Amino acid sequence: MFSSISTLRQVVEEAITEMKHVEKCDMFQGRVGDIKYDLQKSTSKSYEIYPFGSRVAGLGFKHSDYDVFIDMGGYYRGGGETHRSNSVQYIRDLIRQVKTFTDPILIPRARVPVLKVKHRTTGIQCDISTLNGIGVENTNLLRNYMSDSRVRFVATGVKVWARQLGLTQAGVGPGSITSYCMLWLVIFALMQDCPPAAPSVVAVKQSCKGSNLFIDGWDCSFCNSPVPKLKNNKSEIELLIHFFSFYGSMTIPDITSNVISPFLGKMIPVKEFVKTNSLPNEFENYKKQARSDRFYEMRCDSAMCVQDPVEQGHNIAKTVEDWVVDRFLKLCKTTTTLVENSMSPHV
After folding, report:
1. 5-132 has which fold?
2. Which InterPro entries does its entry note (predicted)?
3. Which of 12, 233, 245, 248 is most buried, judging by how many CB atoms fall within 10 Å of its CB?
């Protein structure tokens, strides 16, 4: 993949072509409509079906799962906590009565309970949740970041790279970096370029002119807002190299002692982050949630801490193991050297 810049560009552009083809087929060949129709037919016409995830964000491959939130009755903004596991079990029981979906696997004890099924007509694996619409809003935010073709190029390049090297979940299983987490690691790295190639999420929020939307107390009002354009004029290849060099220059202590916050666009020392009341004013939503009865303070005792920019009490890297972090940093460093050595003076 990194034998030359031209090969690197070709691999990434081929992946982007596949992603665009998947997106086109999902929309114009009716895959999305077929799955939504069959889900409503298999459950209830009164339920609202919301697709989200990598396929909707324009980053899905042909074998990518199709994530679906089923709103069983006014739970988009929250309130589904009281029926978190029973509802997906109920959906499973309904789906079992028809032949439209096969191979149901229930994961009731996950942070967000999920029902995995396979859509018989399209062969697409579907992950169904019923808790709230935060996943949908997260996808909207990611899709807006991907509207910059350079950001999409870097995200795609890193996704292919991580998959080939077994860094993401499909590669090494539990303890690895999820694709969702890797996307935010990409966007965060682009925030650190000089000048930044992507704005912080708080900058997106500050430019938002839409109406308020809170889901289970988390501010999602900005997720559909356009991402402001910045003055970084680097090429997509230069930004991809920046990603690898940014993390490749880090050490294990750099990662373990800091919280990576795409929301603020900065790394925050863990010892400061845990002092919730001392956090800057931009974290007012997080501080309010942390003071609530539901105790939303983020876990900071894992090998890597990456704060979800929307559901800010969620460390999206909390299950990543030490050896995966070590391997990720070393591979970034090695990749930086390989790519820089393959560059001509004019690239």
Report:
1. Beta Polymerase; domain 2 (3.30.460)
2. MTPAP-like_central (IPR054708), NT_sf (IPR043519)
3. 12
Task: Evaluate the omega torsion of the peptide bond into residue 228 and state whether it is cis, within 30 degrees of 0.
Answer: no
Render pLDDT for 198-229 as a digit per residue (tens, 0 to 9).
Answer: 999 999 999 988 789 999 999 999 999 999 99
Between strands 125-129 and 214-215, the pairing is unpaired
Residue 329's closest CA among 268, 221, 243? Answer: 243
For residue 167, give both structure tokens: 């860094």
Cβ atoms within 10 Å, residue 94: 15
Angle made by CA atoms 119, 121, 127, in degrees to the nearest 5: 15
> Which CATH number is 143-342 given?
1.10.1410.10
CA 161 – CA 19 distance, rounded (Å): 15
155-204 per-position pLDDT tens digit = 999 999 999 998 886 545 678 999 999 999 999 999 999 999 999 999 99
Name residue 128's beta-bridge partners. 68, 115
